[in-house]
Every structure is written in structure tokens, then in C-alpha cells.
Structures
1.
Amino acid sequence: MLHEVATGFYVWNVLSWLFIFVITGAVLCLAVYLSVRTRNGRIAHVHAASESRGMQLWDLEKRLRGFRDEYVRPCLTAPHWHVVMLAVIALLLFAAVMCGGTGF
Amino acid sequence: MTYPLPFLSLCLPFAGAVVLLAMRLYHRLVYRKSGEVKNIGRVPLKLSFLLLLLVNMAMTYVVWLRFSGAGSMFYAFGGNGWSNTLAPDSAVRAMMQVDALGAMSALVMSVVAFIAGLRALADKANPLTPSKTAFYLMTMCGVQGIFYSNNLLALCIFLFISQAGATGLYRGVPSARSELLDDAWYLVSRLLAVLLFLAGTLLLFRSCGTYNFAQIAAAQLRHGTPQLTAFVLLSAPLLFLFMKNSSYVADAGRRCFFGIRAQAAFFALFRVVFSLYGPMTGLDKIPVLFAVFGAVLLGYAVLSAAGETDPLRFAETMELFMKGFMLIALSIGLSGTYSAEAVATYGGDALDSMIALWLIYLPLSAALSIICCRLKDVVDGAELWQISGLGSKTPATCAAMGLVIFAVSGLPPFVGYSSKQLLFRAAEHISSLLVILLFVVSMMQLLFGMRYLVSVFFGRASLSRDSNGIGDAAIALPLILLLLLFTGASLMPGRMFQKFIAPTAESLIDSSARTGPPAQAPAEQTPQDAGGWD
């Protein structure tokens, strides 16, 4: 990395990645435009962004949001979640070290 | 005679915290007896807090400067005062050791703590109280101690101090039993985390006979259940504290300090993991598990970003993305560090990427916290983010948010680009599918970020009503300081890698690659070869 940074390779790297990002970015801009246009066209006043229907890009995102709000976030914000998370991490680590070198 | 600057930089905030808490306790006792309320003046409190942050930043800067010319340094207190040389028969043990990783981390942390402190001083919605100031200082002392610790026991002590500070910042001092019961699960989990770490430390001490990282890395550990259990007990709390750091608080100062703590937890995690992964057999599944943890975080980040409109949730989502990438970089770096071929092909790149991601995590997280907490401010009955076309009134905040989103997503030529590119390169040696997955997630991160930026700051302006209280001035100073950091790093990526990332990655490889038996102490040990002392 240091070598490349010190030489002109860095510039080419930036340009090549920029090129990839520009192509993907064009698609993104279109998606952003489509998703935001609805919102600004329909409601352009206070509490506009809280009307979140305009923030959906497609139906899948709406479903994901529903799933998250209904099932995932209530679990993750429950008081005992802290202890559960610590226990899950410890158990997974324990399982991983117990499987180490055993072929599993 | 050596001036123990690292030691002083720990003592200063700790002493400040203790004095403030003692004063609070005294005033509470006086209030109970006489009913007379005695408060510390707001101006002296703010001035002393600012002064402590400034002095601490200056000291960590000098420590970092000293380190760049002198190699690894340690500090011992003997009959002749402070020294950084030890005789072989000396009973004195080094109190702390500073290497590239620790010096640079402490410097970055103190700069961000200073910026967060500036925001906390100017925050009218969440005024600075003596207790809150004490907990800020305590967290800072604990985190700085984690960066300067060279052994597990010290790490455990400073982990406890930083946790005490963070717990105080989260809820403050409980004044009633009901408050204590409300947070019972939180307190139990944090206490359990520290106790697990202590148990792991003691268990490993029984196996190795030392707490020192360098000596543990040099020891040939047997494959046995106690050692593996110690690894689990040490890593699980650190992973937990890293992944579950942020709370839903609309206070930029506190949020920044939670970010500081997450960064310190990741620091401790990779220090512990790199010290044990080499000498300990039976850990071959660990890199895969870390990659799974990273993937889970990225998946949750995508889920969390779906249709999210709340600024604090948005900031949390962006942090989750960064954490996921950091864990995946750690897993690739771990698997690519212990053979010469792997280091040459992808291990070095992965480590550089991990350090770079970890380094920019804190300033980016701080900038996000400052901007998003500002968006939660209530003006005329509505939160700022709920007003469409906000960019026309707050152009600087809008530009800063854009810059942060581009940097977080790794868009070239911004500061996050080099780290993402190195990660893609390293991941290519693992699997092409992984590169595609990481790239797609990066693009989704950019998409969600841009969409949020456009939805909040652009569009038809609805500011015909009185817009007093809306503007850039409230967060201008901390944002300017943070943006100067980003701009410098974006304009000079080579210098950033040369000065910050490369020495840190080398220090990490050096500390983890010692596989021989512990070296005997020479007659007069110099700072450069003092790696084996504790």
C-alpha cells in the first residue's frame, strides 16, 4: 500500500474505483430520486420525514421494515437483551474453540 | 529520569473525576442534614473540564511524538524516581508500556474527546453537570489506560474504570431503588462482562504465569480446556462491549464517549486475540466465527436501515456497518498473519485495512453523533429532521453529513476509501464471493446514506415560518475540527498510512509474531527491547 501510495498507482486506483462507483452511483441517484420525489411532492411541511412511506424504495424494504419493527427491535430493546447477547457471544465462542482442530 | 507523561495523562482525568464525585457526595450529605442546596459554579466546572481535556490532548500528543523517535517505551517507578531503564535484578515492574498502537490510539481518542467535550459544553438541551463531567473524565481515564496497558490485569482494571464511567454516563447516579431496578439487566450484563474478563485473566495467569501480552505471545501454550476457556472468557466481554455500545441517547457528548468506548473495546479485542491466536492451538475456527459476527452485524445494519427516518437510529446503522467491516477485516487479518506467504499476499493488507477502519471509526462516529443529535433538537414543537428542505438553512451541516456518508461508505477519494479498497483486495484472496458481498453492502450503505441525506436536507423548503434556532452555529466548531481531520486524511492518504497505519500494523504483527521463548533481561534494558517486561 505504501509503495502504491508513493507512486502514481494510487491515482489510477482511485480513478478505476471512482469509475465503478460512478456507474453504480448513477443507478443509486435514480433510486434516491424516485424514493424522495414522492415524499417531497406529497408532503412538504413539518413532520414530512416522519411520514415514512416515501422512504421506501420497493416493497421488499417495506416488508423488511415491518419485520424489524414487529419482531427484531422489540427483542433487541428488551431489558434482558444485554445479558442474552453476552451469553450468546460466549456460547458461540465456546462452541468455536471446542470445534477447533476436531475437523468440524 | 523520565517524565511519566502516560501515567500523568491517566492520573489527571481520574483525579478530576474523583474530586468531582467526592464533592457531589459531600454536597448530598450536607443537603440531607441542612436541606441547603450547594452547587458547583457552572463556569468553573466548564473551564476546568475544558482545561483537563486540553492538557490531556497535549500530553498524549507529546507521548506520541516521543514514541515516533524512540520505539516502544515503558515507565517504571523506583528509588530514583521514574525511569525507562531497568536493571536485571530490579524488583521494580514497569507500570505501563507505550507502543505505536497505544500512543496513536490515545492521541486520536483525546482529540475526539476534546471535540466531544466542546459539544457537551455548548449543548443547552443537555447541560453539563458535575456528575456527568466526572463520568466523562472517568471514561476517558479508563479508555486511555486500556490503550497504554501492556498486561491483562491492567487491562481488566481500566476496563472496569471505563465501564464505571460509561454506566454513569448512561444513567447517572441512581437516586432511588426503582431506578436501580429499571437498569438491573444492563448493570448485571456489564458487571458480568468485567467479571468474565477477570476470570479469563486469572485463568490465563495460571497457565502462563504472566499477565504480560508479549510474554503470553511468546509462550507456547498447550492445547487444553483451561486455556481455551480463558480465551472465551477474555474475548466474549470485549466483543459484547464492542457490538453493543450505543444507547438511544440524544446527547452528542455522551454518544461520542460511547463511541470512544467501543473503539477501545475493539482495541483490547484485537490485542488479546492477536496475542493468543498464534501461541494457542485450537483457535482455527475463530477467524470464521469473527467473519460470521461481522456478517451478522452487516445484515442487521441493512435491516436496520430499511425505511429508517430517525437520525439517531440512522447514526447507529452507519456505525453497525463500520463495525461489521471491522470484524470481517479482523477475521481476514487473523487468518493471514501467521504464515509468511499469507502476510505477503493478503495478511498485511487486511491488517492495514482493519487499523484504518478502526482509526476512522471514532472521528466518523463522533461527527455522525454530533450531526444526528443536532437533528433531534426540537424547534417550535418539531424536531429538525422533520422539517423538509433543511439544507437551505444549514448548508454546512448538510455538507458535513454528505462528507461523513461518503467517507463511511468508502467512496473515493474520501478518507474511508483506502481502507475499503484494502479490505476488498484482502478478501479477494479468501473468496471472490466475499468481495462481491462486501462491495454490495458498501453500495447499500452509500444508498441508504445518500437517501437519508437527500430526504432530510434537500427538497422543497418549508421554512416560511419563523426559523429561529435553525442554523449551523450550534455545532460549527466541533464539526469544523472533525472535518479538518477528514480533509487532511483525504488529501494526504499516503502520509496518513505512513505516519499512523503502517507503524501500528507493524507493531501489531511484531507483538503477535514472537513465537520463541521469553527473552532473558539484559544487563541494562533499553526502551526498544523492553517488550518482555511487565
2.
Amino acid sequence: MKRLSLLVAGLLASVLSLRAQNVRDLIVAEVMPTPDSTSLMDGYGRRSGWIELYNTSTGTVNYGGCFLTDDPSNLKKSPIPSWDRATQLGPRQSVIFYASGNGAEGTYYAGFTLRPGATVYLVSNDGRTVVDSLHVPADMPAGKSVMKKPVDIREKIFEVVAEPSIPSPAMVNKDTDSETKGQIMARKDPHGFILSVVSVSVVFSALALLWFFFATLFSPRKPKEKAAKPAKADGEVAAAIAMALDMEQDGDTYAAIAMAIHLYLNDSVHDAESFVLTIRPKESAWNDKSLNFRKLPR
Amino acid sequence: MEQIISSLQQFWEYTGVANCAWQNLVMIAIGLVFITLAIVKEWEPMLLVPIGFGMVIGNIPMFPGLNIGVYEDGSVLNILYQGVKQGWYPPLIFLGIGAMTDFSALISQPRLILIGAAAQMGIFGAYLLALTMGFMPNEAGAIGIIGGADGPTAIFLSSKLAPDLMGAIAVSAYSYMALVPVIQKPIMLLLTTDKERRIKMPAPRVVSQKEKIIFPIVGFLITAFIVPSGLPLLGMLFFGNLLKESGVTRRLAETARGPLIDVVTTLIGLTVGASTQADKFLSFKSLKIFGLGLLSFVIATACGVLFVKLMNLFIKNPAKKINPLIGNAGVSAVPDSARVSEVVGREIDPSNHLLMHAMGPNVAGVIGSAVAAGILLSFLG
């Protein structure tokens, strides 16, 4: 039990350390400064500019208490409520903030409006550290956005694209003609050695972990002290063996006796039972339907 | 009269005879060979009969546009084929496999799990070879999984990575699974000495019901957290095993390992066979896939055997040495490859029974191939 507790504690610690993500993993992924008639409608039925934040990490990030601003001299311009439990952004997820000009309208409303030529900043909850920013070109027409398209999301390398063909609020920014994973692998690992080494390592790690767990948790128990047990049954067992040996002389009998003693001493005489009782239907005169039917007079 | 002749001409155009090409006849002949092997030689009859007959069905020449072919949207065969194309059938088969697999041999000797991992080298060996032969990485990954010797896994992965090659990959995987005794024995004999083949392993300990219940839960949590992309296969495999071992869901377990797996096996075999239409199947690519499939089996078997020999170098106690003849069982063709270990072992020493020991790496191979499929899917899917 102690070993199990240590194992579970170790696993939990490693998992928690891996999940220690912070707001530095957030980016300002896309901004639409001027809406048109096809743009997103907010909860009040209006169309306003919007800001999309994206979580680049594989862990959940709480952005409550952070700030949005378009003014580098006032980094605390529009606070994001820290009391709202909904300010959790899952891995590789995005969230939209409407730049309505009134942050009091809700958690997802910024206290400023957007205009072409502005820069949107995401500021950490200390109110000083700029986590990320995105500049909107001055000639950005209505209904168009500026976005960061991932080049290598693990390395956090992004390409800024102004006026993509279609704005993509609340979606991962990408080109429709982007490379498939197979094409990326063909370019990065043409001979396949990296993928092979990594994959073999992962297969071995997964199964080695399984081996480690079961070898640790269910290592074979040491044989119980059985010195007293044969002594207790000694008389009867010895008599039975002696009688059998007197009566029979063939090798099969000796083998059977030896096997029985071996199983007895190793406490493995019985199979593991499921301990589930089932009632199987048994045909008898009592439940025979033909005998229970009412006989019609002829 | 003209009307009658015209109708007859029209009817003639619709017949299989009028639309027949030599490729159709070749594929029908291959299907008939499969059926013959299954009935006469009893090689994997549960798979080769449906696949063989499916090949015959899929290659009956027909006039296009009647909406009856496996690749024509909305046809009966096409609807059944969606289970293969979308990857629904393989996880259901894994549910049944889980419900019929006894992991006792593995739990009693956890060290044998590693042999199941070593045998997965066949997958990546074939992947490397496929890349050198000009396949794209996603195609190479789908071809490599043939080395996992697991038909449902091969279908699942190829449906995601390279749907165009799925027919050839599935037929190749199932064919070589049926040929496991022929392929593995010479490799095992080649890589082991007479002394090694005579190693007697200690009897596995008795496994308690508690351990059997804990195994699918812990096994699932560990593997799924490492490779979530293998979730459909791993989840169903361990869930099926929990149904079997829990002791309180006997009816569900019996359904999973009985009627359910029978129905799905019939459908998967038939539709995979039907998907091998001559125009899509008879190509040089298919020949290359068959060649790579064979190599992947050879590599997997060799790696399993050699890995046991490597393990023996580190085992000081002679009584605990592992017989390398169980190394081949790391490929997950359950239980055929374990049976090969037993047969070859008894040919050398009739009193040396290796079946129980070989079942450990054998079922570990099932887990290993599902994990490997998950990794390939996450990199290439």
C-alpha cells in the first residue's frame, strides 16, 4: 500500500509539474478593428470589433486578472475579472473579447473600441508585463482582420497575416492550403529516423511503465511459512500416502500424489472463482409449458 | 422486333460478361484462393472466408452508375464500408478481443511486457523501408503497421492515414497473420542455439482476481495518458477486459466476445474484401505493400527473439532465464504466434511447454501495436 501511495504521489507530482502553465502561453491571435454587416454579433446584438486570445500551450491557463489595452501608457485600461471562474482557457483553445468600449458589460467585453492603426496589448495580472501584442495596419478595411498564423506552434513561431481571405474568430488560425502532417514529416524527417526513434522510445516507455507498475505493485509474495501446516495434517496425510503406496505401484500414482502434495504446499489447489452465483433454467415437469396448458375438452 | 433486340443489347451492356476485364478475373481468382486456403488449410477461416468472398463480390464487373458498388455513395455495400472507412469496426473488434483475452500470463510475469514492445520494431523497420521506396510518410506509417500483426489496428490506422491503400494493407496484414507459422519458424531457428531453445522457464504464479480487475484499469490509464491518440483502440480493449474480469458483467462480456465480434468481423472482412476492386488494387504499389508487409513480419519476429537474448544477458539466475523461442510471440497475432512458440519448443524438447509463457508477450504485443498506432496517428494523422 505504501508503494502504491508513493507511486501515485510521484505520478501526480509529475503531472502537476507538467501542467504548471501560465499566461505567458497566451497570444493575441487575431483582431478585427472595424466590423461589417457579416461580422460577429455580441450578446447585446451589436457588431463591434473583437480581439481573439489563443492558448498555445497544452495546459489550461487562467487569464482572470489580466488586462487588455490599446494604450501603452495605460496598461490597466481594461481589466479581465479575476472572480469569474469562466476565465479558464483550455489547451489550444481561443476566446473572443468584444471591443465595445464598456468593460462593465461583461467578462468578455473590453473597455475600449478598436480602430485601424492601433495596437492591442495583453498584459499580465501584475499590470506591468506585456505578454503579447498585435498591431493593426492603418489601412485595414471593415470586415477584415489581422491574425497570427502558426508556423511552428511548439516553438511559438507565428507569421502575422493582414487581411486573410476569411476572418476566423474562435478558430485556430491556419491556411486552408497548409501542409499536412505527412508533408511536414517528409520535409523535416525525410528518412524517418527521428519518428522511428521517438516512436520506439514511446512504445517502450509505455510498456516499461506498465511493467514497472505491476512488478512493483504485484511482486510475487514470498512463500508463506508452512512449516506448521504439514505438521498439523501430518498424521492423516502420511497415512493416506502410505496406504496409497502400499496398494499401488505404478508411476502415475506417485506422480499424482507428488502433484497433489506440491499443489497443497503451494496453496494453489483451487482455481480463482468469480463468486457469482447464477441460476440456470432447468427443464422439468414443473415448468414444462405443455403440462401447464389448460386441456380443452375434445 | 427491333425493340426486343434493342432491349437485349441494353441488357447485355449491363451484364458482368460485357464489362469484364482481365483484372476482375485476377482478383476473383485471388478471392477464390483465399476461400480455398481458409477451407482446405483452415488458415484464419474467420477472416479469409469473408475477405475472399468480399473480393469476389467487389470484383464482379458491372456497369457503373447503378449505385451498388462499394465506392458508390449510398449503396448498401458503401454504407457497410463506412465502418471501415471511418474506423468504427476496429474499436468494436478490440472490445471483443479485450473480453476474450486473459492477461494472467502477463500479470504473473510483467517483465515479458517488454518483449511485446521490442516486437513493434517491425512497424518502424517497415516504415523506414517504405520511405526509402518512395512512399509518403503517412502512407509509410500505414504500411508499417502491418508489422504489428494486428488486422483491426492496421485497418484503423490505414483508414486514417492512407485510405487509398487500405485494401492492400488489410489484405496483406490478414494474409501474413494466417502465414505466421510459416514465416516465424525459420527465423526463430536461425536466431537461436539448441541450448537456448531448451531453456525451461519456471511455472507462472497464480494471479488473483483482484490483480486481473486492476490490470485493465491501470493499463488503460497508463497507456492512454501517454498516447491519447490510441484511445479508441486502447479504451475498447481494456474496457472489454474489465467486462470479462469484473465478474459482474458476464452478459456484456459474453455479448462482446460472442455475437458482437462475430457480426463486426463478418462485416469488416466482407467490406475490406469488397474494397479491393481491381482498378484500385492491382497496381505495383500493392505489390510493394505486400513485400514490405512480409519484411515487417520478419523484422518484428527477429527483434522479439533477439530482445529476449539481450534480456538473458542481464539475468544472472539461470533458473530465471527466458526461452528466446517466446520472442516471436511479441507480434500480436493472438494466439497464433504463441502457438508457434509452443510447437517449436516441443519439437526440440517435448516436455517443454512454452504456451503460457508466450501468451505474456503475445497480449503485450496487442497493447504495444495499439500504442504504436496511436503514436503514428499523432505524428502523421
